Amino acid sequence: MNDTPYHNLIMKHLEHNPLMYSLENVTNNISLGDQNSTECAQIMIPHELFLTLGLISLVENILVVLAIIKNRNLHSPMYYFICCLAVSDMLVSVSNVVETMFMLLTEHGLLVVTPHMMKHLDNVIDIMICSSVVSSLSFLSTIAADRYITIFYALRYHSIMTTQRAVAVIVIIWLASTISSTLFIVYYTDNAVIVCLVTFFCITLVFTAVLYLHMFILAHVHSRRIVAFHKSRRQATSMKGAITLTILLGVFIICWGPFFLHLILILTCPKSPYCTCFFSHFNLFLILIICNSLIDPLIYAYRSQELRKTLKELVLCSWCFVM
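Above: the chain sequence. Below: its structure as tokens.
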């Protein structure tokens, strides 16, 4: 079996995590019986790669949050939602760094913990990762709705999407994500947890895709109704924001898609040789998830000149402070 931090933690506390138990049982099939027929080798991922990617993505997302807080020009509902999306990515980064450091310390005999402590750590990390995916999907959908309003209800946008309403939406999403993730871990039935996650993934993707499709089909027609120059400029800005979020959604699907396909195959064909061959690459899917947290800040900076400018200022200030 692979010697990644995720795999080691799963192996030590399999009985405490039914979702990962299902994943590990399916993955075990490839090494126990199906490996000879499929000839699929598992990909070995070193601890250092997990740790390096986790630290880089953590620093990047912290800078994004600080930049949005620092620059008053970024104090708008869309950037509040982007800030929360960065926090969601930070949950993945923090859980990865903590777990990797934990495994390195225990393997080198520098840290000794009891099984009870291990169980609680495992549960906390699972809740963080589950909260990350639920909140990320929720905020992507929220940003899509926000861009939809700016395009089709441009004149009423500031009365519809007020700061108070944006804050209320943010609070509701975080509460729902935390509660649902905790329930997934504490009150679980193996397949039910997987079905819920996959269903939520599909619903949010369909919702977001419908909004984007409507935006890109009708935005050109709608823009003809706006005559004033400053309003046309607002329309162009709204479409730029919609394109940015389309890129974010595409990256999310690419990075998280294999993991959710993994979950779907567990339900549909856990014994198939072709499925078990796919399962053998599970650790690669984990790397893709971490890469999503690493890529998102680069997209924010590339698409927003104001955010990019603030990020440069923060990096320069940090460099001068260190020197």
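Residues 90 and 297 are 11 Å apart (CA to CA).
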